[in-house]
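Students often ask why inverse folding is considered easier than folding. One informal answer: many sequences map to the same fold, so there is more than one right answer. In these notes we will look at a single instance of the problem. The structure comes first.
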C-alpha cells in the first residue's frame, strides 16, 4: 500500500507516517522544510520538499513518489496554518498565510490526489480540519472559517469522487498535544480542554480512514460541547467564543 502525506514532516502528519511505515506500507511525506523531520526517522521514509500553496510543487512531489508506476492508495493532507485573530489582532501576512495554506492548499491537494487516482478507480483521500470548523457564526475567527471551508470542500469532493471508487474522509480534531501546539502556547496547555495525545489521535484517524468515514470529530467530549454551543443564538455564541478566546490568551476585557 502506498501512502503520501502532505504536511508530514512534523506533528500529526509525521506520526501518521510512522504508523503506516510500521504496517509495512510505502510512505512518502512532504513539507516546506524537510529538515523538520527527526534525524532518527526510518531510512525507508521518502521525504520531499513541497509547498501545498503551489499546485506544481505538490504535484511534482507526488509524481516523483509515484515515478516507478506505483498506485496511490492513500493521500492525507495534514498541512495547515494557524494564527490567532482575537479582536482582529492579525496581520495581513498572517491572514494570507492561513487563506492560502488552509483553503488553496487543500484544493491543490485534492486535485493532485484526484488526478493520481482517477485512472485507478480506487483510493482514499483524507484531510485534517479542526473541530472549530463545525461552528458557524458571524464573528468566528478566520482560522475557524478556513477550517469550515476545508470540511465543506471535503464534502464536495466526496460526492464528486464516490462514483469513481475514491473515498474522502474529513478529520476534525480538538486539541492534540503536538510540538506546534506547545510552541504556540509557550508549553502551557492547561487551558486546552479535552487534550488528546498524538498516538490516540493517530489511532482514531487511521481507523476512520480505513472505515471510509465521512467526517470524524474527536474527542467525544469536545464534539458534544461544540455541537451544543452551535445551537445557541448567534449573538450569544459570538459573546461566549470571544470571551473564551480572550481568556485563553490571558487578555484583559
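Output (designed amino acids):
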Amino acid at each position: 500500500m502506498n501512502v503520501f502525506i502532505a504536511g508530514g514532516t512534523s506533528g500529526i502528519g509525521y506520526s501518521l507516517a510512522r504508523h503506516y511505515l510500521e504496517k509495512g506500507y510505502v510512505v512518502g511525506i512532504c513539507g516546506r522544510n524537510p529538515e523538520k523531520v527527526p534525524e532518527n526517522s526510518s531510512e525507508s521514509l521518502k521525504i520531499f520538499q513541497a509547498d501545498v500553496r503551489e499546485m506544481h510543487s505538490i504535484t511534482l512531489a507526488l509524481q516523483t513518489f509515484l515515478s516507478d508506476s506505483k498506485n496511490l492508495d492513500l493521500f492525507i493532507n495534514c498541512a495547515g496554518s494557524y494564527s490567532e485573530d482575537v479582536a482582529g489582532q492579525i496581520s495581513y501576512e498572517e491572514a494570507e498565510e492561513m487563506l492560502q495554506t488552509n483553503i488553496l492548499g487543500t484544493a491543490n491537494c485534492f486535485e493532485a490526489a484526484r488526478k493520481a487516482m482517477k485512472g485507478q478507480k480506487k483510493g482514499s483521500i483524507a484531510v485534517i480540519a479542526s473541530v472549530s470548523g463545525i461552528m458557524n457564526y458571524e464573528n468566528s475567527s478566520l482560522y475557524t472559517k478556513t477550517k469550515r471551508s476545508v470540511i465543506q470542500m471535503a464534502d464536495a469532493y466526496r460526492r464528486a469522487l464516490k462514483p469513481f471508487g475514491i473515498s474522502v474522509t474529513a478529520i476534525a480534531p480538538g486539541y492534540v498535544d503536538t510540538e506546534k501546539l506547545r510552541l504556540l502556547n509557550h508549553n502551557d496547555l492547561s487551558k486546552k480542554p479535552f487534550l488528546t495525545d498524538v498516538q490516540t489521535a493517530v489511532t482514531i484517524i487511521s481507523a476512520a480512514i480505513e472505515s471510509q468515514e465521512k467526517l470524524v470529530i474527536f474527542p467525544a467530549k469536545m464534539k458534544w460541547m461544540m455541537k451544543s454551543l452551535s445551537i445557541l443564538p448567534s449573538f450569544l455564541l459570538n459573546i461566549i467564543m470571544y470571551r473564551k478566546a480572550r481568556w485563553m490568551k490571558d487578555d484583559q476585557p
